[in-house]
Amino acid sequence: MTSSFTVRPLGPSIGAEVLELDCASLLLPETLAALEAVLTKHEAVVLHVPELTPEQHLAVALHFGEPEVHTFYPNLGEGFEQITVIDSKLGDRADMWHHDESFLPSPPSVTMTHAQILPPAGGDTCWISMTTAYDALSQRMKDYLDGLSAWHDMIGPMSAALRQNFVTHERYLEVINMNRRHLHPLVIQHPDSGRKALYLSPTYTTHIDGLPCAESSAILAYLHAHCQQVHFGFRHRWSVGDMVIWDNRSVLHNAILDYKPHQRRMQRASVFSRGPFYL
To answer: Exposure winner among 18, 167, 258, 278, fewest CB in 10 A?
Structure first.
């Protein structure tokens, strides 16, 4: 069996669509290697694979690294603990700009989400290329950011979830007591492409280490606004069976919550790299 597909760019900065992909050949080593090359170049890749099975989903994840068993979300159960279920009917949401789990010492490097149930309208996901956002900074700003690190902390979104009654106070305390926070460079270098990327988000990044509070807040506010310029990203309107694979090191994402009271259910695998998360 041989495999081939065509690639159609979806935006000037990020995103590509894989066409004419035979799902039966998806797990061939040459297919997976070719998909990995597309991901390295385009940072987010859309596959149309309605027939994809959980076994195949997990096998694709294993190509990219070690799939995570998620701490917070439910999964498909025995044998598929690494396939997370994100279901709006359970109160699950991700409607904020973020890197997945950047509060960990070594966060997931790749995320892949497969659409199962979609609302009749809405529920799109947006992605931002943080490499392109970095490239667009002035040289003076790049020089200023060089060597700075920022704290990423789980407390912000958990506090918001508590205020909005999405979690109980007991669950809030349980998560906060995990002390999920870590210091990461504001600028990282991708281990495969070699490109530099901004690494921060308004969801998890609390402050820049070693700076006065006012200066840290001003710099972060500028960088958040800078990154969210529309020409740095793309927006995907899902169809059932679509799978999007994105590079969690160099991409922010936001799943838009605009479809209540309808249901949106996804199956997701997040993958830890077998090498360094960044250089």
So the answer is: 258
pLDDT exceeds 60 at position 1: no
Three-state SS at 30: helix
pTM of the model: 0.94
Q: Hey, is 116 helix, strand or coil?
A: strand
Stretch (H or E) spanning 113: strand 110-117
Alpha-carbon span 200 to 188, nearest angstrom: 10
Q: Is the pLDDT of residue 114 over 60?
A: yes
Q: How far apart are CA 129 and CA 44, in angstroms?
A: 9
pLDDT of 67 above 90:
yes
Could you give the CA distance from residue 140 to residue 191 in angstroms, rounded to a whole number?
24
Comparing C-alpha atoms, which of 216, 155, 228 is closest to residue 186? 216
How far is 143 from 96, CA to CA, in rounded Å? 28
Sequence-distant (≥ 6) Cβ neighbours of residue 231 within 8 angstroms: 12, 13
Tokens found for residue 212:
């006065």
